């Protein structure tokens, strides 16, 4: 250490910061940010923050608040588990309404820029906001066939896919019966919720 100090002092511009100066620099460069913990939120704040995790279905967050959330629910995994429990325990009719709350992929709402911020970002991640006229027409045809057959929109975690893989899944799942599709759509809804939570929690 002495040899290093002697060497450093032989050069111009060398500066030895004190502990206080290091602490001040760190505080200025990386200011403390208070983390809101789900388990410590009020009901109103909890629903406001996580009510959009399941598309247009804030009732899921409202019911999850009553699960006596603790520190284990302050992570993505923990909170997703709580929200998914509410979704899975809901009636088939309630889950169907959640599915119907999802927009068509590259559909009329997207064209009119009336998607939620979450859905807008998700569809853009697979370039569904930059389709050619032929691609947009293809999506619209598939949307119509799917809804006509199954009674709810085609749902897929867009951020796990590309435009090509989404089209492939669209065509494959059109052949499924509606019971199987209901199960698959619910699983995709839960995956979308998990990805949305990752945007909000550490």
Overview of this protein structure:
With 202 residues, the chain is mostly helical. The protein has helices at residues 2-9, 19-29, 43-50, 58-64, 76-89, 92-100, 108-111, 117-125, 133-150, 163-173, 178-198. Helix 3 (43-50) crosses helix 4 and helix 4 (58-64) crosses helix 5.
Q: Tell me which CATH architecture applies here.
A: Orthogonal Bundle
- Give the biggest sheet: none
What structural category do the secondary elements indicate?
Answer: mainly alpha
Under the CATH scheme, which class? Answer: Mainly Alpha
Helix content: 55-70%
- Total of domains: 1
How many helices? The count is 11
By DSSP, the count of extended strands is 0
The named CATH superfamily: Oxo-4-hydroxy-4-carboxy-5-ureidoimidazoline decarboxylase
Mean pLDDT across all residues, rounded?
A: 89
Strand content: under 5%
Short characterization:
By secondary structure, the chain is mostly helical.
Lay out the secondary structure.
Blueprint: H1 2-9, H2 19-29, H3 43-50, H4 58-64, H5 76-89, H6 92-100, H7 108-111, H8 117-125, H9 133-150, H10 163-173, H11 178-198
Helix pairs in contact: 3-4, 4-5, 5-11, 6-11
